[in-house]
Each structure stands twice: as C-alpha cells, then as structure tokens.
Amino acid sequence: MASENSPVLFQARPYEGSAPTSSSLADGRETWPLIHALAATLNDPNPLPALAEVLGSHLGAGACLLLCHYPSANDLIYTCWHQGAAPTSRCLGTAEAGSPLDWQRRVALGLIQQTVEPAVGGDRLRWQQGLAALLREENDPPAWLRAVAACTAIAVDGSGLQGAMLLLGPNGLAIEPTVQANLASLGAIAFHQHYLQGQAVRHSEQLRYLNYLKEDFLSTLNHELRTPLTSMMLAIRMLRRPDLTPERAAMYLDILEQQCSREINLVNDLLMLQTLESKASAAVHQATDLGQLLTELAEQSQAKLQQARLTLDLQLPPEPVVLSTDPQQLSKVLGELLDNASKYSAPQTTVTLSLSDARPQNGRVALQMSNLGVAIEADDLPHIFDKFRRGHSATKDGIAGTGTGLALVRGLVEQLKGTIKVSSQPSASQLWQTCFTLEV
Question: Residues 6 or more apart from 1 whose CB is under 8 A from it?
C-alpha cells in the first residue's frame, strides 16, 4: 500500500483473475492484466519485494530474483522471492577484497553483465553456480534452489543503472519479446524508484543531522561567547572600584586582554572557515625549513602545555628538511592540532610531534602528532573533521570548543595539497593514543 508521501507513478486496478500461462505470454495474449498488476506494485513505498512476488507468481515461476547495480553510487541490491516465503531484499555495499561480501558482489555483477551483454563460451558464468553462491545461507545454498532447473533472464538497462530479472523454476518460460520489453521497462522504473526513495531517505537523515549540528553549534557558540564576555564585564566593574590597588588593577587588565584575545580568535576562526569554504584564498608557497618552524611552534606552545600539565616531545631528523609550502597555513594547522592535544590529553602525559627521518618522496613530508587521553569513539572517528562536530566526550566532560578547529585543519591541509588522517588505539598505560598523520 502506498504511503501518503510516496510518489504514485501509475493508477492501476489489481488483477483478480487467474495467473496467465507461459503459452499466453509467448503469443502476447492476456498480458495487460500482468502489466497492470506489476504497475500497481510501483505505488508501494518499497516496490522491489512486491515486484518480485507479483512477477514470479503471475508468470508461474518458482522463484524470482531481481538484481540491480547503480554505478554512480556503486550500490548493488538484490531482491529474492520464492514460493512459500516472503520476498527479501539486501544491499551489497562495497567490501574488502577477498571477503564473502566481495565475492557475492562479483557474482551478482557477473549475473547482471551476462544478462545485459551476453558472453560466449567459457567466459559465461553458470547461473546455477552463481545463484548458489549469491543466495547461500551460511555455507550451503538454500534448499528451494535445488528444484530450480531453468532460468529465464530479462535484461534491465536504464540510464544510470544495469539490472536483471531472473525467473527461476523447473521449466523455462517462453515470453514474447514485446512482453519482455514491457517487463524490462517496468523493472527499470521500479529500480529507479527504489534508488530515488533511498536517496530521499538519506537526504532526510542528512538534513536531520545538519539540524542537530546547527542546534549544537548555536548552543556551544552561545556558551563560548557569553563566558569571555561575562569575565570581561566583571573585570571592568572591578576596575571601576575606587579602592582598587595597582596590583589588582593589573590582574583585571590581564583578564580583559586574555578574554578579548579569546573572542578575537573565535571570530577569526569562524571567518577563516568561511573563507576556506568559499575557496577565496590560496596558499602562498615558499621554501620553508620545517625543523625551524616546528621548533618555533614548540616554544610558542610551551606555556599552554605547561598550564595543562603536559610535556612536548619534539622529534626532528638530524638533517634539515626544506619544503615548498605556506609556512603560515602549516603553522596554523599544527597549532590547532597542539591545541586539540592540550584539551584532550590526560594530565602528566607527553604530546609527541615528530618529523619523518626520510627524505621527501614525491615532494611529500610526513609529520605526526600523538597524545594520550580518552578514546575517540568509533561513531565519532569518521566525522572528526566535520564542521561544528564535537565528540561525545567533549560534551560530557565540558571541554571548551566550538568544533571549528579540526574543520579548519582539514580545509587548510586541502589548500596545501596535503592529506591528514587520524587513528585512536589503546596504549599500555590504559589510555588511548590519538595520532594525527599529516603529509604535505
């Protein structure tokens, strides 16, 4: 039954007569009731299971298998129906080479390919072996597949997809070419509808995720803006007191300067992130001694690391490493990574910043920054460089930040034509080691 929000592509009355025989399909008679029944399945929010069941039962097949590959998304889906059981669907996503899922994908693609573009001789995949491999339950093919002795294949070759409709049973089906063309057209519509509905679901989920990020960012930004402003307001009020000593006045001025710098840095980060997204700026490359750049960065970060009770271990190669890069952008990247490490490292631990000993290969140099602290949760790891995304531990532990730092890192690294990746692994000290690997 179609949902209120699903698109209705056809208005067709369900066919209530007896199923047509293969002979009637062979000469083209009594095919319109079948076409109407199949068209009615397209009103279903998930048309493929209904299509497989109607197609198999109306044609008198013992089973029906629908296979479709969407090259643009590299998605592959199959739907299987056989007599006595409800139809099932499964999406075969990308998989590691040599894995069972990868083998199923290759089998399904082979079945589609030989249906759309029939091969010859020994290159042709035996459909019995292919189905047994594709539909296997644990280590054995399903029991109902043993009764299948014939396969009638209909190719579905549409814009942006390739598919096959396989009718299985003890005997082959003689289907008139015009009927096959109509069935293939309906199959293409169903496959497209399934893909579009899947895209709509994904877009809806993405919209909900973006709304969540927006609300979380606004809440965090409200806190990050109000906290320094509150401190500045209190410092100003204290400076107005007539009995204020010079020492206390100097302390409140320091507070004003620190909190003002905090606000300026926050605004600058937001503006830089916007600039990176608009692609308005470009890196200015010049010969840069990386060892000297890292040494200066370590000296500038010493006070912040000491305040967080952390030690910095700077590991440099004995020979100078000179690279053509933008030193300001690279310093910003490493500074943001150091700031991230100072927030998430456990006290009394060491932050390690190392430059590769190897000479640059293909114009690239590897830098690593690692720290010991809480684990990056598996759900957060793929999104750690997303704009305004903050980990669960940051929210739970009340760690300051707006989720812009690592997004800036990714944007700047992309401008430097480099790459960055992150890993989080348990260490011997019952803490987790977070490691950022940067290649520029």
Answer: 43, 44
Pairing of strands 349-355, 310-315: parallel
How deeply is 245 buried, as exposed, middle or buried, from its count of CB atoms within 10 A (0-12, 13-18, 19+)? exposed
Residue type, 8: V
Encoded amino acid at 210, one letter: L
Radius of gyration of the chain (CA): 32
Tokens of 404: 């812009």
The answer to whether the CB of 128 falls within 8 A of the CB of 29 is no
The tens digit of pLDDT for each residue in 133-176 reads 788 765 677 888 888 888 888 888 877 888 999 998 888 788 88
On whether the CB atoms of residues 418 and 438 are closer than 8 A, the answer is yes
Q: What pTM was computed for the model?
A: 0.50
Strands 63-70 and 75-82: antiparallel
Tokens 């989080």 appear where? 424
Determine the 3-state secondary structure of 93 from DSSP. coil
**Separation of alpha carbons 375 and 234, rounded Å:** 37
Q: Quick one: which of 116, 102, 110, 115 has its CA closest to 129?
A: 110
Helix 405-415 and helix 327-344, axial crossing angle in degrees, nearest 10: 150
Quote the distance between the C-alpha of residue 10 and its chain's center: 34
Alpha-carbon distance of 61 to 59, in angstroms, equals 6
Residue 379's φ and ψ, nearest 5 degrees, are: -70, -30
**CA-wise closest residue to 326 among 230, 417, 222, 406:** 417
Q: 374 — alpha (psi -120 to 50), left (phi > 0) or beta?
A: beta
The span from the CA of 179 to the CA of 165, in Å, is 13
pLDDT one-digit tens code per residue, 305-350: 988 899 999 999 988 888 888 898 899 899 989 988 888 888 999 9
Task: State the Cα angle at 327 between 275 and 332, rounded to 5°.
Answer: 50
The Cα–Cα gap between 404 and 120 comes to 57
Q: Give bridge partners of residue 211 from the DSSP assignment.
A: none
Sequence-separated (6 or more) residues with CB below 8 Å from residue 295: 314, 316
DSSP state of 137: B
Element (H, E) at 213: helix 177-239
Rounded CA-CA distance 388/399 in Å is 14
Amino acid identity for residue 162 in this structure = Q
Q: Is 320 left (phi over 0), alpha (psi -120 to 50) or beta?
A: beta
Distance CA 371, CA 352 (A): 6
Q: 70 forms bridges with which residues in the sheet?
A: 75
- Mean pLDDT along residues 270-277: 76
How many Cα neighbours within 13 Å face the side chain of 201? 9
